[in-house]
Amino acid sequence: MKKLALTLCLGMTLSCWAASPKLEIYSGETDTVFSPSHYVIAVTEPGCDATINGEKIHVYKTGSFGTKLNLKPGKNSINVKVTDGKKKAEKKFFVFYNPDGKPAVKEELPPVTQPLMHPLDITTLPGAYLQNGNGDDRLGGSKMGFLVEDIPMTAVGETENLYKVQLSDNRYAYLPKEYAQQGGEGRATVNSGSWSIMNIGDTDRVTVALPRRVPYYYVTELEPSVLKVSLFGVTNNSNWITQRNEPGMIDYVDFAQDESDVLTVILHLKEKYQWGFTVGYQGNNIVIDVRHRPQSLALKDLTIGVDAGHGEKYSGAVSPSGLKEKDANLDIVLKIAAMLEKEGAKVVLSRPDDSNVSMTERKRIFREAGVDLMVSVHNNASGNPLEPMGTSVYYKHICNRPLAKALHTSMLSLGVADFGLTGNFNFSLNGPTDYPNALVEGLFMSSLPEEEMLADPDFRTKMAEKVVEGLKNYLKEVEKSL
Ligand SMILES: [Zn+2]
Predict the structure, then answer these.
(1) What is the C-alpha to C-alpha distance for residues 278 and 216, in angstroms, rounded to an integer?
(2) Separation of 51 CA from ligand 1 center, angstroms?
(3) Model pLDDT, residue 19
């Protein structure tokens, strides 16, 4: 038997004294529905028996229970009863199933880009990023990548929130208006100058001389391990591509004039596993820093960033029985931190307690600490509340896929369902390229069988162990590849 959380045990004790057992309808008490499949989810005290329309329903250790009803057209009477053996509680309500009606779906028109009558010169502000398209999503439109400030561009169109910018003769992208200020030199085509490639300690630095700042786009590739940075509005005129000393991570550099005014800097890397990079400017020269692999891959020599999702007034998902995602996340993260510290690792937490920390601040904490790896822990919601939905791991840049995959494989060894390994994910903390990172969405708060697991402190310990095991397996994989 799994141990119950303290709060649950208290709940059970109190029920003996209460007038009648607790009964709350969590979902399904809906006026009118347009589908015959209807979930009713309710919560009572652990240990009580429950029926819905006379049918006995399993009550989880959290007190949550539920069923899927098959409604008949018209008025359906729903009767939810619980008993603790002596006393009863009951709730009755009606749900009207309209088989002919259409659900009130909010009409979402695709965003329309309006051309600007006169091209508008703009300059990037701190935090700027480009999108390939003008689409939006719960986590924002799909990002191409971030840009530093003070990069001149020319907008040729706009939506409500985005500028359509011309990057090169044939290439357009979108820039959020909040990260642009009007004015600047606008778009131009320039010639590239000399390159230098230098090992500056724990980083290789590639500098390409340019007469002015231009927008850029970066992409990583695996097998072979490559980092490419495309410079828009640049024609190759670099006759000197000079390597000053033996780089730590870069094998050799090359370039491609992909379009008449798009120059791509190609960095062929020595190792399959990448440890982060940054792209920015020193004056007008573009600077690409590629981090070396840490000298030792033993946990005792590494700094690991661990992020607990949400916090304080941001609860994240709340399960039917009232378990808050922020609390489950923090508990798992503190357990991960303790396990890593026991192995001698230096652990950096974005929030060590129930506080509200912004995404920008979380990224700053990890970047400034120079973490070698970062894992963010959340738990999911939505989908079928009666079935296990499963665990999932997310990454944005392809260079982080091996880390995400190692975590995913380890989480699956818990014997839980698989919700997938997801790439190009737009979660804010998957955006940084400075260090390898991945997001673990443990289980679903909204799934009754998984809610029961998440409410169990012993299971949360197992989840923490699996995250740590995933990190260790990743490090072993890297070690083996050398
Ligand atoms: Zn979350």
Answers:
(1) 12
(2) 32
(3) 77
User: Which residues of the chain have a pLDDT value below 50?
Assistant: 1-16
Distance between CA atoms of residues 404 and 393, nearest Å: 6
Rounded to the nearest angstrom, the distance between the alpha carbon of 227 and the centre of ligand 1 is: 31
- Round to whole Å and give the CA distance between 113 and 453: 47
In the chain, what are the domains?
A: 8-97 (2.60.40.10), 114-182 (2.30.30.40), 190-291 (2.60.40.3500), 299-481 (3.40.630.40)
Let me know: does 438 contact 393? Beta carbons within 8 Å.
Answer: yes
- Provide the pairing of β-strand 391-394 with 262-269: unpaired
Residues around ligand 1, an ion, CB closer than 5 A:
309, 316, 378
**Measured between alpha carbons, how far is 73 from 160 in angstroms, rounded to an integer?**
43
Give the type of residue at 161.
N
pLDDT digits (tens, 9 = 90+) for 35-61: 999 999 999 999 999 999 999 999 999
Cα 316 to averaged position of ligand 1 atoms, centre (Å): 5
Q: How far is the CA of 303 from the centre of ligand 1 (A)?
A: 24
Q: Go through 351-382 and write b for each residue having 16 or more CB atoms within 10 A of its CB, e for each that does not.
A: beeeeebeeeebbebbbebebbbbbbbbbbbe
SS3 302: coil
**Distance of CA 403 from the midpoint of ligand 1 (Å):** 20
The pLDDT, as a whole number, for residue 101 is: 79
What pTM was estimated for this model as a whole?
A: 0.92
